[in-house]
Amino acid sequence: MSVARLPIDIDFSARSQDRAFFCHDGTQIYLIHLIVTVYQENQENLRPIQGRNMTQTIRLPGLADVHTHLRVPGGEHKEDFQTGTAAALAGGVTTVLAMPNTTPPLATETAIAAAYQQAQADTRCQLGLFAGASPAHVDELPRLAPYAVALKIYLNDTFGTLRVEDVPTLRACFQTWPLDKPIAMHAEKQSVAVGIGLAATYNRHVHFCHISRREEIELIADAKMRGLPVTCEVTPHHLFMDVNDAARLGSLADMRPLLGTPDDVAALWEHLNDTVDCVATDHAPHTLAEKRSATPPPGVVGLETSLGLMLTAVSHNRLTLDRLIELMATAPRRLYHLPEQPDTWVDVVLEPTIVRNEALFTKCGWTPFDGVEVAGRVERVTLYGQVVFENGRLLAQPGSGEVIPEM
Amino acid sequence: MSVARLPIDIDFSARSQDRAFFCHDGTQIYLIHLIVTVYQENQENLRPIQGRNMTQTIRLPGLADVHTHLRVPGGEHKEDFQTGTAAALAGGVTTVLAMPNTTPPLATETAIAAAYQQAQADTRCQLGLFAGASPAHVDELPRLAPYAVALKIYLNDTFGTLRVEDVPTLRACFQTWPLDKPIAMHAEKQSVAVGIGLAATYNRHVHFCHISRREEIELIADAKMRGLPVTCEVTPHHLFMDVNDAARLGSLADMRPLLGTPDDVAALWEHLNDTVDCVATDHAPHTLAEKRSATPPPGVVGLETSLGLMLTAVSHNRLTLDRLIELMATAPRRLYHLPEQPDTWVDVVLEPTIVRNEALFTKCGWTPFDGVEVAGRVERVTLYGQVVFENGRLLAQPGSGEVIPEM
Questions:
Q1: Strands (E), B73-200
Q2: From the CA of A171, how many Å to the nearest CA of chain B?
Q3: Contacts of B168 in chain A (CB under 8 A)
């Protein structure tokens, strides 16, 4: 460990301070534990004043959320690239990847080119698009690729019309999508084996989105043990909620995949430190009116609660902070070949914080975690050396971010 | 090629003879083309008499049909081990493997032990049973194994109740079924990728039954090119019938998988000389009354027509006789680790033969190929040195065959 001079702020107005700093220099994390005790003056028998709970501040790399729905085009009444990337920064996320099941879906060159252009005008952070696989437009895939970070294939039912069932489309995806760009799959239960079969047959990386069931994570663990080129993500809502929450919240907790049983949730935690490659939110905004309608669409937001929830898990010793950084920053960047973000970090205050709908930047304005206490909050986000978010204030302008890949 | 003295019968009562003999000594096939012309006597200017079509006789190894439904227990009104193995011998098949989707299914130790015992009493040839995978009895698999040649997993709808959809049952099958016994799968369309994924994850052989669609055979070709441990079979009915026959024959040609399009059929023929590992019949007897009822069950017989149809394909140069022997005898024996059958062969007359329901040994008494001309007929079957079938007469007694594996 090299010696580094760190600027450490000491609050002399406090009576005592007990703080731990995590500093991250891009390759390594340093923990500095600082105890400062201010003794009462004018006492011969000096004794420490009983300290109150002191806040701790940690610095993290900019997080990458590889699974968000920013609803452009067609759903701008509940999210757009401006509000979605505002929510990202508020959550400490400096890179988002946006899913293609929009209206129309990003399955044609026309649609993805327009979305790319809109993102350039609106994004406040690093943003990449998924191209969507569809039987009707599978021949366009090579033309979609320049606009996209990766390809998304929906093997199971989801919000929208992008489901792929037929083997000829699947084969075409694996045979024509550029090898240097990943393929992500919405695959539940037996469909996970479909994805593994295709990964093995065509010897190319398949990333499984939002794995939520014991049987799925165990099958993926087996495939990884065999050396097959598969990876997976889990969402905070599948880690922190289960069927009981679904019963309590009704359509507000309806999502795909559905919330699991307590045993499914336990399996995800068991595998969080080995099989799981990354945490992603599946941030899927819908208005409360839509969710309370007769035909509520599936999905809930996550960008602004993901870090707080995972820090809660760190505080409960369910994973280390190192592992959190791997799951939320290092691994997603590696899996999706995302460009580095120099001079970019997130300062986080580790103090109990109540999630509040009123504080959200997502356009839909609500989260199923409203009222829940989490273990930290984003204090400041620095992106390419500029402070873009600080103490609840959004400072980044629309269009100040970048769309990847560069064209 | 070594020199061998072969006994060749020449019919001097014929005016001319043009015969080709295929002789098979267990490792190699010899073709002897014999042309005998009998000249008219008392003619100074000798010229050949125009010959009539002469019959050819070939000797094949005993065939192995690794996919039959012999309906024991529960369906003995339409087939049983006595009639099913009679049909086998009549078709030149000296080894049959019987599927487990019976009533009750062969998914419990009790059921498979009883079926094994019944087979010992009744079989006229070599016979092996499949154990059936079922979620309810998956823990019994190791106890079923001694009675079974292989395990059958139904991923898709079929006749009976053995469908497996859940990943935990599939995992248990791959993890607990003995490694030296194959796993066969009924998998259609996308389910083929499930089977490939499981074969790759657990690195064990999966045999795909009755592959019938272009997308399926092409995916399997890709997986084989990648070196994955998968094999497959096709049925004569999927090679010789298509959706037009299904329209013509109605419920009589209803089966699972359904008959394909002409393009599907073309794909099977394209892959018959490389991707396809073996031909199996999926012999599935139902009475005509059942097939003509309001709820006709899927399935048709095949044991007594398979060889004739494939010989027709040989006569049309769609495959060689060598390849026929590989597909119908050598490969199925190798894939299922079937014991050798010494002194066993089938003499076949290569002459146009009309398939007739009246001539069938299967208890159900009908075939969708009734009235169809095929290129040959079984003249004589010799099993372990005994003639067991000759010119339409069944000579093997019930119980004279053997059940494998030996217990």
A1: 93-98, 126-132, 150-154, 183-186
A2: 8
A3: 215
Task: Work out the pLDDT band at B48, boundaries 50, 70, 90.
Answer: very low
Asked if B341 and B329 count as a contact pair (C-beta separation under 8 A), the reply is no
Residue of chain B nearest A175, judged by CA positions: B222
Cα distances (angstroms) measured from residue A203 to each of A231, B131, B171, B192: 13, 32, 22, 17
Do A197 and B223 make contact, defined as CB atoms within 8 angstroms?
A: yes
Quick one: which of B192, B168, B134, B195 has its CA closest to A219? B168
Cis? peptide before A7, omega within 30° of 0: no
Check pLDDT > 80 for residue B258.
Answer: yes
CB B141 within 8 Å of CB B134: no
User: In this complex, do B165 and A192 lie within 8 Å of one another by their Cβ atoms?
Assistant: no
Q: How many percent of chain B have pLDDT more than 70?
A: 86
Yes or no, beta carbons of A222 and B171 under 8 Å apart:
yes
Per-residue pLDDT reduced to its tens digit, A162-177:
899 999 999 999 999 9
Copy the structure tokens of residue A258. Answer: 């559905």
Which residues on B lie below 8 Å from A173 (Cβ)? none
Q: Is B285 helix (H, G, I), strand (E, B) or coil?
A: coil
Q: How many folded domains does chain A comprise?
A: 1
Give pairs for A46-51: CB < 8 Å, separation 24+: A48/A16, A49/A15, A49/A16, A51/A15, A51/A16, A51/A17, A51/A18
How many angstroms separate the CA atoms of A80 and A101, rounded?
14
pLDDT for residue A74 is more than 60: yes
| pLDDT tens digits for range B204-245 | 999 999 999 999 999 999 999 999 999 999 999 999 999 999
Q: What tokens does B85 get? A: 């193995």
- pLDDT value of position A54: 55
Q: Which of B155, B219, B226 sits opposite A167 (nearest CB)?
A: B219
pLDDT one-digit tens code per residue, A4-43 = 434 455 554 444 455 554 544 444 444 444 444 443 344 3
**Six-digit token string for B370:** 């009734």
CA A271 – CA A214 distance, rounded (Å)? 9
Is pLDDT above 80 for B253? Answer: yes
Higher-pLDDT residue of B139 and A48 is: B139
Judge whether residue A159 has pLDDT over 70. no
- Give the span between the Cα atoms of A184 and A130, in whole angstroms: 9
Rounded Cα distance, B368 and B371, in Å: 9
Which residues on chain A place their C-beta less than 8 Å from a C-beta of chain B? 155, 165-168, 170-171, 189-190, 192-203, 215-216, 218-219, 222-223, 226, 228
Residue B362, phi then psi, degrees to nearest 5 = -60, 140
User: Amino acid identity of B159?
Assistant: F
Selecting from A167, A198, A203 the residue whose C-beta is nearest the C-beta of B215 gives A167
For residue B48, what are the CA distances in angstroms to B33, B40, B42?
A: 18, 7, 13
Q: Determine the pLDDT at residue A157.
A: 73
Nearest to A201 among B170, B202, B226 (CB): B226
Find the domain containing B324 and state its range.
1-407
Confidence category of residue B159, pLDDT binned at 50, 70, 90: low
Residues from chain B that touch A221, judged by Cβ atoms under 8 A, are none
Which one, of B116, B103, B101, B80, lies nearest residue B362 by Cα?
Answer: B80
Q: List CB contacts (< 8 A) between A215 and chain B.
A: 166-168, 171
User: What CATH number is given to the structural domain containing A254?
Assistant: 3.20.20.140
For all residues of chain B together, what is the average pLDDT?
Answer: 90
